[in-house]
Design goal:
Number of helices: 13
CATH superfamily of the largest domain: Glutaconate Coenzyme A-transferase
Structural class: alpha/beta
Radius of gyration: 21 Å
Number of domains: 2
CATH architecture of the largest domain: 3-Layer(aba) Sandwich
Helix content: 10-25%
Shape: globular
Strand order of the largest sheet: 4-3-2-1-5-7-9
CATH topology of the largest domain: Glutaconate Coenzyme A-transferase
Number of strands: 20
Largest sheet: 7 strands, parallel
């Protein structure tokens, strides 16, 4: 227990922890369901003491108060993924957007091209050896913490412990804030008839023994229910949602035929509800890795029968009409591009790496049909 005393010495309040953030710094925030909300809330109370602090993150599920107009002198957000909570700020020019593939984000941290002054992360309590788990999200955060000059950890008693390359030792943490609060959860997606129609087409391309890249949204959620009669499916994906649980429990997803990491679900993070968080907690089936690993086309290509099962592009905003230019359109290139590239190189995967776009075409009678 040699780590215990150093751990205790680093325990401070959230208010004290954010004192390390000074004007002109760049702050990274753990994204997704792992967002350290207590640290973000404390940082907002520091607004009057700092200027021009750049806040960098992928999709977060909190309220992003640093994007409010009244915070513009203190904070400016640089979005690596334009989520719903920051979209308006990006469109109105109060925040920036750096277009990049998910698997390439960590290279910015490693090279120093986007150096991180302070990383706000959320982890599980340490085990008997002093290792904390990144829990529901390894994604780009393990690498951000590795290269950040200062790491502030929100240690949450409600964060699950997950396996894989998903640990950080307490010796690598500069400040620790203990909390016990529910994680951020994502709302259930509404599945439309369009999604169901596309889902039926996509699922028809998935054969027994295929390795899937899953996703979040109406189309991925519409694909999975159509796969209950498949056998021995595997998963190598950037993310996983609640809708994969029934297929795992039914034994449809078991990875028995996977040649690369057999019987393991390879993923970078999960987006879902407490049901999913409890499901991945200390579950050895799940093997978490950084996004640079899960989204590497070379590693993806090592999976035979690799099948991308989500749309090629995720639309994060839409124009008011096809002819209107009054509202900007932002598209986010997700992991699907990397997966498609890897699938085309995979043995028995090329014919199935078909991009699926949720597009409608209106006839001259204004009837809508699937393209």
């Amino acid at each position: 227990m040699s780590w215990f005393d150093p751990y205790r010495s680093k325990l401070i309040t959230a208010r004290e922890a954010v004192q390390c953030v000074q004007s002109g710094m760049r702050v990274y925030i753990h994204p997704g369901c792992a967002e350290p909300e207590a640290l973000v809330e404390a940082l907002m109370n520091r607004a009057g003491y700092v200027k021009n602090v750049e806040i960098v993150h992928l999709l977060t599920l909190g309220t992003s108060p640093y994007c409010l107009p009244e915070m513009s002198e203190s904070f400016r957000h640089n979005a690596l993924f334009v989520g719903g909570n920051v979209r308006e700020a990006v469109q109105q020019g109060r925040a920036d957007y750096t277009p990049i593939f998910l698997g390439e984000v960590e290279a910015l941290f490693e090279s120093g091209e986007m150096s991180i002054d302070v990383a706000f992360i959320q982890v599980s309590p340490p085990d008997s050896h002093g290792y904390c788990s990144f829990g529901v999200g390894v994604d780009t955060t393990l690498t951000a913490a590795k290269y950040a000059h200062h790491v502030v950890a929100q240690v949450n008693a409600q964060m699950p412990r997950t396996y894989g390359d998903s640990f950080i030792h307490v010796s690598e943490l500069d400040a620790i804030v203990e909390v016990s609060r529910p994680l951020c959860e994502i709302k259930e997606n509404i599945i439309t008839d369009l999604h169901k129609s596309i889902g039926a087409h996509v699922s028809s391309l998935i054969e027994d023994g295929s390795v899937l890249q899953l996703g979040i949204g109406g189309i991925p959620d519409a694909v999975l229910p159509n796969l209950v009669d498949r056998r021995d499916l595997g998963v190598h994906t950037e993310l996983l949602s609640d809708n994969a649980i029934p297929l795992i429990e039914a034994g449809v997803i078991n990875g028995q035929r996977k040649n690369f990491k057999p019987r393991k679900i390879i993923l970078g993070f999960v987006l879902g509800t407490k049901k999913l968080f409890d499901f991945v907690d200390e579950n050895p089936v799940f093997e978490f890795h950084p996004s640079a690993y899960t989204n590497d086309p070379f590693r993806i290509s090592q999976n035979e029968r690799m099948v991308p099962s989500t749309p090629q592009l995720r639309w994060t905003s839409r124009a008011k009409s096809a002819r209107s230019r009054s509202e900007p359109v932002f598209t986010v290139a997700s992991a699907d591009n990397s997966t498609s590239s890897g699938a085309r190189r995979a043995r028995n995967g090329a014919s199935r790496s078909l991009p699926c776009l949720p597009l409608r075409r209106a006839t001259r009678f204004r009837a809508s049909c699937l393209v």
